[in-house]
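Our consortium's second objective concerns turning raw sequence data into structural hypotheses that experimental partners can test. To show how far this objective has progressed, the report includes one record in full. It was chosen at random from the queue rather than selected for favorable results. The single chain below, 371 residues long, was entered without modification.
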Amino acid sequence: MSRTEHWMNKRKGQLTRRQEADLPRICERWRKIVLSTEPSNRKKAQEAVGAAYKLCGKRRPHEFVWLDSPFQLSEKLDFRLRPRLRFPHRHAGVDYDIYLGAVRFYKGPVVEHTQRVISASVPAITSPLRLLPLNDKGWIQQWVSDTDGNRLGSDRARALALADFLGTERHATFKDFIPVLEHCAGIWIYEKAVVFLERPRIMNLDELNRWHSFNAPAVEYRDGSIVHAIHGVRLPQQWIDTPADQLDVGQLMREENTEIRGALIAKYGFDRLLRNAHHKIVSKYRKNSLIEFKFPGRVWSAEGRRSIPTMRLRALHLKWCDKTGPRETVLPVPRTLRQFGDNRPTNINSCEQVRRWTLGWPKEAMAVAET
């Protein structure tokens, strides 16, 4: 009696030449989807979603609802359109289910290689829904949650690019809906209706693809809705409208939200902070210094008054000379072992070791000369 071969032994150990050649095209396709600020093509989006419903064995939806911004989401709208349809997913969410669909048919190193190539080209932006304030009922969490199985959007571009590229049997449902996202920013699917999200008119991102602008809206939608954020942290407009050199460091440190305080310090600038805030020198090497700022918090026992935790920040104060003359800069650096990550210096209190880590030098590197 023959034994059926286990499915793990049937997984593919490498990509075909055709797949390798097609991967850059898939990456470029999804890069454009993520970064597009062109108006949505509503006609093509509706045609594509109707075709996707048909491929999934569902009737074509009777109603198409277009939202010009996430601010138009409402509990009333969700309740009116129910019941929802759901993409096949496990408790960990849609993104993880796409990953499971990949490793079911391809070996781990193949999937990891593909993910690295995709990650190098396709920005992983955070859903703008996460910047929306939660109301008392918390209904918006159903729209925002990663495990919400009836939503696909450009914020899931890396996972969807993997499904688009590999196209395994477990990716079939996702792949049917992928063409819709070439014409809009996102969709929510219901049995008899589909909600489409219009693309932003303006998107500003930092180097880590977080919503970010020091002096302008991070996101602006076509209905005039705007979101202000610094390095992915939403802030009131007053902090964005105030020039960095006019920020009051004392008022800044009295901000109760720790994330907002950190974002405001980024706008204020470590060089300005060095001149105006008390700090101590942790370590010094030649002309360079590792410095630490400490901003005491406060503890309130009275009801209704929030405590402010103590904030500690570190930075490198570097000095050097080049052809233009003396130069100096102040660079923020991690403060704890966990923040440094696996490739951390042996001694995180050493100015020179932290400087080498910041420059990306190997620990064993020897400098012959520096200018």
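The partners drew two points from this record. DSSP finds 14 helices and 13 strands in the chain. Residues 278-359 form one domain. Both points have been shared with the crystallography group to help prioritize constructs.
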